[in-house]
Write a structure and sequence with these properties.
With about 325 residues, the chain is α/β, with parallel strands linked by helices. The chain has 2 domains: about 5-100 and about 295-330, 3-Layer(aba) Sandwich (Rossmann fold); about 100-285, NAD(P)-binding Rossmann-like Domain (Rossmann fold, 3-Layer(aba) Sandwich), CATH 3.40.50. Helices cover about 40% and strands about 15% of the residues. The chain contains 14 helices and 12 strands. The chain has helices spanning about 15-20, 35-45, 60-65, 85-90, 100-115, 120-130, 155-170, 185-190, 195-205, 225-230, 245-255, 275, 295-315, 325-330, and strands at about 5-10, 25, 50, 70-75, 95, 150-155, 175, 190-195, 205-210, 235, 260-265, 280-285. The strands form 2 sheets. Strands 8-7-6-9-10-11-12 form a 7-stranded parallel beta sheet, sandwiched between helices. The chain has a 5-stranded parallel beta sheet with strand order 2-1-3-4-5. β10, α11 (about 245-255) and β11 form a beta-alpha-beta unit. α5 crosses α7. The protein is globular.
Length: about 325
């Protein structure tokens, strides 16, 4: 029996590549070249599945040129690279990798919060520049984290994991805003209170963004929202680029309208707005919230399970558009 053909669009762990080769004819991109849209279409010819990382856009234009394609498996939890409506219309299943990165991402959210509130990046640059010659009472004095108020925008799995750390580990008061309110028992488990978005922005000492990106959440934090925040407050974006208006944020940081920001995601990444690079009161990391070896292996393993499950057995573990499964009779 001939093995189905799949494409791996970016470099992955060698052991993952070998596992896939046991079940499929594999074309891989271990050189980790970023392909153009036309090159991706060319590489997908004759392929029934694709292992993806979120870099590659799957839309109607691509699908119309790849008639054999049945599955696109993201190894990321985010899937704004997928046009799910177009994929469903074309009968192509999309999958992602939820759950396996929740705790690691929540850990990093706190790492970014602590680094931002306590001015770690600023103080390290100061030290490396040889400027530290004496102690002073206000040298890099930042904001308290323990006992402060954390406002979480987006209270899914990652938001709840952050809330647990905040309430149980740091004694923080947790307020949150979400599309829908959590049940009372879940709120009580981390002593969280549901508030409106405007109240959250006005009240929180630290604002943490963990909401999914969509057309409705584009620039959910812009100049008007930043103006509501305390001048002593910090903003942490752990979610997706585009949720924050990066230009407006850079201006607010420059003018000290908020104290500081910590960003792991950006509009148009990997390009970063140059204005953000010129202000000192921001901590910048290159989209690494899930970057532990254990978590990245688990993310890749889930994408593998989806490829094997659907292409060989018509069963998917984490389908994003399950109506395609129903159509296939799975």
């Amino acid at each position: 029996m001939t093995k189905p053909s799949i494409l791996i669009t970016r470099a992955i762990f060698p052991e993952v590549l070998e596992q896939l080769r046991q079940h499929f004819v594999v074309e891989s991109n271990q050189d980790d070249v970023i392909w153009s849209a036309d090159e991706l279409v060319r590489r997908l010819q004759g392929k029934v599945g694709a292992f993806m990382t979120g870099t590659e856009k799957v839309n109607a234009a691509l699908l119309g040129q790849c008639p054999h394609l049945k599955l696109c498996a993201n190894m990321t939890v985010g899937y704004n690279n997928f046009d799910l409506a177009a994929m469903t219309a074309a009968g192509v299943l999309g999958t992602n990798a939820p759950d396996v990165l929740t705790e690691t991402t929540a850990d990093f959210g706190f790492a970014l919060l602590l680094a931002t509130a306590r001015r770690v990046t600023e103080s390290e640059h100061f030290l490396r520049a040889g400027l530290w010659t004496r102690w002073s009472y206000d040298m890099f004095a930042g904001a308290e984290v323990h006992g402060s108020t954390l406002g979480i925008v987006g209270m899914g799995r990652i938001g709840q994991a952050i809330a647990r750390r905040a309430a149980l580990g740091f004694g923080m008061q947790v307020i949150y805003h979400n599309r829908s309110r959590l049940d009372a028992a879940t709120e009580a488990s981390f002593n969280a209170s549901y508030v409106g978005k405007e109240e959250l922005l006005k009240t929180a000492d630290h604002v943490m963004l963990v909401l999914p990106y969509s057309a409705s959440s584009h620039h959910a934090i812009g100049a008007a929202e930043l103006a509501l925040m305390k001048p002593t407050a910090t903003l942490i974006n752990l979610a997706r680029g585009g949720i924050v208006d990066d230009a407006a944020l850079a201006e607010a940081l420059r003018d000290k309208r908020i104290a500081a920001a910590g960003l792991d995601v950006y509009e148009g990444e990997p390009t970063v707005n140059p204005a953000l690079l010129s202000v000192p009161n921001v901590v910048l990391t290159p989209h690494i919230a899930s970057a532990t070896l254990g978590t990245r292996r688990a993310m890749a393993a889930l994408a593998v399970d989806n490829l094997i499950g659907f292409l060989l057995h018509e069963k998917a573990v984490t389908p994003l558009n399950p109506e395609v499964l129903n159509r296939a009779g799975a």
